[in-house]
Design brief:
Rossmann fold; 7-stranded mixed sheet
Length: about 260
């Protein structure tokens, strides 16, 4: 089983939070605590992250990670579930919602994608991830983390040094060898191309992005147009990491979405 922290008592609806690469369930704690009086919140450490380490090699594959999240659903005390994923976690959540929609009452996608469509782009990303895995084995983890957050994807964090330092500190607690496995095994290069299957996504879906994250704004618009029951939200003055940059705004949208599900359950 993956390591998971449960906040709040058993309820009819459980909220299951999945983090992004180098994250952990702990990064969701503030948001989870704000909603745990109404719904049980489950903060999951995905394979190779946080306390979910020392797992079999198969755990840090796309199929293995998705299977372990299914086990979290199996072990839940709640009747219904809302799966909430950020970035890497959002990609896993999309896969589960497409494959097993009956298991979910709702889906929240923050800064996620349905995969890579171009085989050449997939090969390029696979090579990049091999290089990242090698770097994780070679340099101190804090150096790797700081290099990671120099990507244009996270440019809005550069304007908020205190928040960036907090995030770097949290990410640097991970085991670099475990992350080296995860960066390759859970990469978007290993994720199936789910764009052709988005029409199967029957679960009510909230799609959240930061208004300053131009690339994922476009991706989110496309996902929303391809899905049957989606609500599209763009949070002002935020980049890729909305739940870190604007936790109150994210929590407000999450609560509104989960409350709306009671009308259709």
């Amino acid at each position: 089983m993956l390591h998971a922290i449960k906040l709040g008592e058993k309820s009819g609806t459980g909220l299951i939070f999945l983090h992004g690469f180098m994250g952990s369930g702990e990064e969701w704690r503030g948001i989870a605590e704000s909603v745990s009086r109404r719904w049980q919140a489950v903060l999951v450490d995905l394979p190779g992250h946080g306390a979910s380490i020392g797992l079999a090699e198969a755990a840090t594959t796309w199929e293995g990670a998705c299977g372990l999240v299914h086990e979290i659903l199996d072990s839940s005390e709640c009747e219904r579930h809302v799966l909430i994923g950020y970035s890497m976690g959002a990609r896993i959540a999309i896969q589960i919602a497409i494959d097993a929609p009956a298991r979910l009452a709702g889906l929240v996608i923050e800064s996620g994608t349905a995969g890579l469509e171009d085989p050449t782009e997939r090969d390029i990303r696979r090579q990049i991830d091999r290089e990242r895995a090698a770097e994780l084995e070679r340099v101190p983890i804090e150096i790797f983390v700081r290099h990671w957050y120099q990507q244009d994807l996270f440019k809005t964090l550069a304007r908020r040094r205190d928040l960036l330092e907090e995030i770097v500190g949290m990410r640097a607690r991970n085991d670099p060898s475990e992350l080296a496995r995860a960066v390759s095994g859970l990469s978007v290069a290993t994720q199936p191309n789910l764009w052709t299957r988005l029409g199967e996504l029957s679960v009510p879906t909230l799609i959240v992005t930061g208004a300053l994250d131009e690339n994922y704004e476009s991706i989110a618009d496309r996902i929303s147009a391809a899905t049957l029951h989606s609500r599209r939200v763009s949070i002002a003055a935020c980049g890729h990491s909305v739940h870190c940059e604007a936790p109150s705004a994210f929590a407000e949208e999450l609560v509104s979405f989960v409350e709306s599900l009671s009308c259709v359950l």
